[in-house]
Amino acid sequence: MIVEMRIYHCAPTRLPALLDRFTTHTLGFFEKHGIEQIGFWTTLIGPSNHALTYMVKWDSLAEREQKWNAFQADADWIRIRAASEAEKPIIERIENHFLTPTSFSALR
């Protein structure tokens, strides 16, 4: 198992738009393309409260490449993402980490 942790750093005031896009659209595309989420978090205390952190589970990097590329190339997703950012961009930058569990991890 591989866990991908993604942190989306939003432009000021744009976190609500990102949360709405995930709730209304993105999670449906994840389901369509077989992307299994572990969880989503916003920052309660930290350097910025304009971030969304989430984790998804993969069996392998090959599975991730196949499913993520299909999601990113989905014409409906491309259209919806563009429409959600028509007024102004939502995300300033993305951090991406691939994690593997230790032998003593509760999640393996």
UniProtKB/TrEMBL annotation:
SUPFAM superfamilies: Dimeric alpha+beta barrel. It comes from Paraburkholderia bengalensis. InterPro entries: Dimeric_a/b-barrel, NIPSNAP. It holds the Pfam family NIPSNAP. It comes from the Bacteria. This is NIPSNAP family protein. Residues 3-105 form the NIPSNAP domain.
